[in-house]
Amino acid sequence: xxxxxxxxxxYSFEEFIEFLFARNVQELAEQGHPRKWNPWYRHVxxxxxxxxxxxxxxxxxxxxxxxxxxxxxxxxxxxxxxxxGPTLDCSACNIILxxxxxxxxxxxxxxxxxxxxxxxxxINPLESxxxxxxxxxxxxxxxxxxxxxxxxxxLLLQDVMFQTLASILNLDSEPCERAALHGLGHLHHPDTxxxxxxxxxxxxxxPAEQRAYxxxxxxxxxx
Length: 223
What we know:
By secondary structure, the chain is mainly alpha-helical.
């Protein structure tokens, strides 16, 4: 069955936010087995202006706290899963991969995710979307779809992701630190080992499990 087409080309920022989050969703615990999860964004095709949507994401990520007052945890969880992955045509993941956009615009979108972590995920890490955020965005470097040795945007995007993750690792938030370590474990940046060692040196009293996870991330051995 063909997916219905939604044209958001001329949406305002507020309309875009409603499109992403104002959905009738169930709490994950009510949905049964995870494989039965059938989010709305799997069933829609989107027509959009990539430059406009990139700017909307930067605006959203820079000041995301208002979402906590307007939408339920379940709505945010499902919306952010759509934003981070490739299924939704206008996702941040696909915006970052869009070579028709200037690399500077895509780098700005990635950098703004530091604020998303600080002002939203540190306050409410949701069920799983926050922890898996960087897994979704960084996995191309683990599976070989991207490689630093190719240079160009494979190197540039990897560097800006690494810089953003390094800043998130400095946040006073265990969920955000964990998410950053998760992403670093998949990004395969050459400076990961020294970065994580500095993190461990700054935090000598880390719980044993978190320390073990950091060491695994330093070896690019995370799930």
